[in-house]
Amino acid sequence: MALASVIGIGSTCYGALEKSFIELSKEAAGKALEDAGVRPDDIDALYLGNFAGDQFIDQNHLASYVASAVGLNGVPATRVEGACASGSLAIRQAIFAIKSGMCKRVLVIGAEKMTTLKTAEVTRILAQASNQKLEVNTGLTFPGVFGLMTNRHMYQYGTTREQLAAVAVKNHEHGLLNPLAHMRKKITIEDVCSSTNMVAEPLNRYDCSLISDGASAMVICAPEIASDYRNEVVDIIGSGQASGPFEIFLNEDLTSLSSAKLAASRAYETAGVGPEEIDFAEVHDCFTMAEIVATEDLGFFEPGQGGAAALEGLTKIGGKIPINTSGGLKSKGHPIGSTGIGQGYEAVLQLRGQAGNRQVEGAKIGLTHNLGGSGGTCAVHIYKRRF
Amino acid sequence: MALASVIGIGSTCYGALEKSFIELSKEAAGKALEDAGVRPDDIDALYLGNFAGDQFIDQNHLASYVASAVGLNGVPATRVEGACASGSLAIRQAIFAIKSGMCKRVLVIGAEKMTTLKTAEVTRILAQASNQKLEVNTGLTFPGVFGLMTNRHMYQYGTTREQLAAVAVKNHEHGLLNPLAHMRKKITIEDVCSSTNMVAEPLNRYDCSLISDGASAMVICAPEIASDYRNEVVDIIGSGQASGPFEIFLNEDLTSLSSAKLAASRAYETAGVGPEEIDFAEVHDCFTMAEIVATEDLGFFEPGQGGAAALEGLTKIGGKIPINTSGGLKSKGHPIGSTGIGQGYEAVLQLRGQAGNRQVEGAKIGLTHNLGGSGGTCAVHIYKRRF
Known about the structure:
- 2 copies of one chain form a homodimer.
- Chain A is an alpha/beta fold.
- Chain A has 2 domains: 4-117 and 212-228, Thiolase/Chalcone synthase (Peroxisomal Thiolase, Chain A, domain 1), CATH 3.40.47.10; 130-210 and 237-385, Thiolase/Chalcone synthase (Peroxisomal Thiolase, Chain A, domain 1), CATH 3.40.47.
- Chain A is built from 13 helices and 11 strands.
- Chain A has helices at 21-36, 53-56, 62-70, 86-99, 119-127, 142-157, 161-176, 189-193, 258-271, 288-297, 306-312, 328-331, 339-352, and strands at 4-11, 45-49, 77-81, 105-112, 198-200, 203-204, 214-221, 234-243, 280-282, 365-372, 377-385.
- In chain A, the strands form 2 sheets. A 9-stranded mixed beta sheet of chain A has the order 3-2-4-7-1-8-11-10-9, with helices on both faces. A two-stranded antiparallel ribbon of chain A has the order 5-6.
- In chain A, strand 5 (198-200) and strand 6 (203-204) form a beta hairpin.
- The longest helix of chain A has 16 residues, at 21-36.
- The radius of gyration of chain A is 19 Å and the shape is globular.
- Chains A and B meet through helix 3, strand 3, helix 4, strand 8 and helix 9 of A and helix 3, strand 3, helix 4, strand 8 and helix 9 of B.
């Protein structure tokens, strides 16, 4: 029961790159179109996931700009924004467009160019995804939000510093195997735990994801025509999106995000599968604790058990449920608008059996989990190999 | 053959308003939900049309924020941006979501809060909808773009200063009849032609649309359930979107916009009607010349005849094809993200026969035309009364 099918994927490296926003978008789109064997003229719609190009690169109306640059003449081009989940929301609009019967082949691009600005300015722009008046102006930016969640998780469940560190170490191990990853560097639990670069207690620099440039793209089509384009078709069988309380203090429980649980339950329901059938997942590890919470909200582990699971190695490649085989936001990088589509890129690569030395053996079903703000938005997609 | 149906509409006044972005959004959404008789719990998705809230009000991730504020707990909330066409693109995503069968009732809100900033800053933000490097940095902002188009139209077709003025005078006449309009003020052709407030030759202040705050909203549902909610159902029977050259200099002809012609042909095709069957239209009169070009691109008048038609009164209420009965961007106002949904609001009001002393008698089919940038984006929708 596929909602839509992925027939082409493409991605740039993630990192602090010389290339412009448009160059990155063109590169990712060109690779995806080539991978799919689809010409620009055959594309019925473009969706662009982008968070804040108007501030990062002083340019708005970017979907039209990218359409023009990629050579999609006349093609409807729409930018979609949902903070750090922008990319996944773009994928979801493509699914709607295809399931509506009004589009057959849709190009989805996620792109962000962030490293042109200084870190303080990037932090200011990112903080606009949370409530400026009630949160940011009182001093609460995202590291603070996830620091609060971490402290509560530790208090409530006994989660430890070492368990958090295990998430970072594992994602760096995975990222070392991904040629597209931003920070390909081995780190140890000792490195993380002994760091004096505190960001928002207890989270230090090793617990935080990266500021990156990058673009990823997918060609998505109606399930019934997918096999006309390639043999290794990957179907999107589940899609769930939810909003949650916009401000972190409105959450009943700081150790779980209602939007993630709701988006996951919707995705599982549309797919007709449960967490036990997922072979691997890309989750939104903007901070190490976010990954632990995600693996619990998605039903892979019981509430409070995500930290222990990470330290035991259950989330490594070869473990019970490999998480962030790409390296995640922590090592692969986090170009905001691109992240959700980069997650889908990794899922498709794994399901095609093309993930090289980070391949999850026998992977048949993969899941992506993409968060916006402090859970104001969450989107979950489930991908399945058809062949 | 309805794509989707409108069962509720709501709008704030447009103008320089005391209310905040969230207050405006809540007001418009609340009115639309009440008009439809739909509770927030029955909404399956929210689409928010917004251009640049991150700069206008220092707040991004606005769809989630609005969902939380309106009480749409857990509802998928997605912001859509396509410059000045953002509102219409949001409507289009709602159509896709409904036609996909994955959503039954969708709330669409368009909102922008612009008057908090000084005009020079607003102009800078608006200019980000065109190419910063190749256009804006060389001195070409939007008044300049439409000034170029105007000069060419005058050169090629003999369009006159008086004909341009007739557009402004007519839209102010219509706006006087609209209690929600921003600038309700009678002006004369003499006022316009004698103005010394030149903006971009030959366009003076009277040729330009307004900088406004405002929000409009619609409840859109699957056609088969619309009559469960109300008797006066208005169906969306046509929807067309197109991208065009991102930079104005890439247009083969400065007197016409390819995206508008393409979007219109797609909308006419899905609706199965032609321009001769349209009873009235709301078009994107960001500048007087933009309305003239729109009425030609939409097929209401032959190329070059739009100016004469306006001066002859053919586009007035009571004329051959009433254009911008709401007052248009020129008099009603132009809160960017809201504009496309405000156009739909007027179309539904007219088709329900609720437009009071600006009612187009016997109106059965109406059209909206919403432009982004200098034609980088255009969306056209066709509405039809069912009852």
